[in-house]
C-alpha cells in the first residue's frame, strides 16, 4: 500500500505523507523520513495510534492523514509526564478517557506487613503455574461476566482483554488462584518480566469480597518473589479502582508514573 498525501511545507521542502502499509505511515522531507505513524489493533478490536516525529508540525500532518484514513473511535496511550506529546494529541482532538497509575511494589514482608497474612478459613492458595486450567478458565469467565455487568471488561489491563476467539486467559501458567471447597474463587496474574515482574490483575468473585482473599493472594505472590531474590514488582491500576489502589498503597507500594489513555470519537 502506497497512498500518498501532499502536505504543507517544512522550511524549503514539502513534507509528503505516505501510507506504506495497512498500519504504518511515513513522513518524508527532502528524501529523509522525519516522522512515522503506527496503528495497532488491540485484542478487543480497538485501534491504538502512535506517532514519532521530529517536529510538532510533522506530528500534526501525520495525525491529520491517519485520522482521515482510519475509522473512529481511535485511541492512544501516553506517559502523562510528557506534556509536549500530550499537547500534540490534544491538538488532534483526543481527550483523556482514563488514567492508570504505575506502582512499584516492595516484596519484602517486613516492608509490606504481609508476612503473617494467611488466607481466610477454608481458603487455600494454589501457586503460580499450578492451577488446573479448566477451573481457572471457569473462574476467569465468571469474573469477566461480573466486570462486564459493572464497569466493563474494556477497563481491564491490555494483557487480559478479550482475544478474537473470546478468550481472556492466554497463558494459564501466569496465574495463582485462591481455592475453596474445590472451586477457584480468586486469581492473580503475574507476568515474569526480567528483574521486575508485573502484577497484571487481581480479582475475586463478588460473593467472596471483603474476606481478605485478594490480600492473601498478594501476600503469596510477593512473598514468592522475595524468596527468589526479587525486591520490587510493578502494577498498573486504573485510578477509578479505589479498592485496588488501597490494596497496593496499604502494602507500601508507591506511585512511579502515570499513563493516559486518550480517545477520539
UniProtKB/TrEMBL annotation:
In which domain of life is the source organism classified? Answer: Bacteria
What CDD domains does this protein's entry cite?
A: NAT_SF (cd04301)
> Which InterPro entries does this entry report, sorted A to Z?
Acyl_CoA_acyltransferase, GNAT_dom
Listed Gene3D superfamilies: 3.40.630.30
Q: Where is the N-acetyltransferase domain?
A: 141-265
Molecular function (GO) terms for this protein are:
acyltransferase activity, transferring groups other than amino-acyl groups
**Name of one Pfam family that matches:** Acetyltransf_10
- This protein is called Ribosomal-protein-alanine N-acetyltransferase
The upper taxonomy is:
Bacteria, Bacillati, Actinomycetota, Actinomycetes, Streptosporangiales
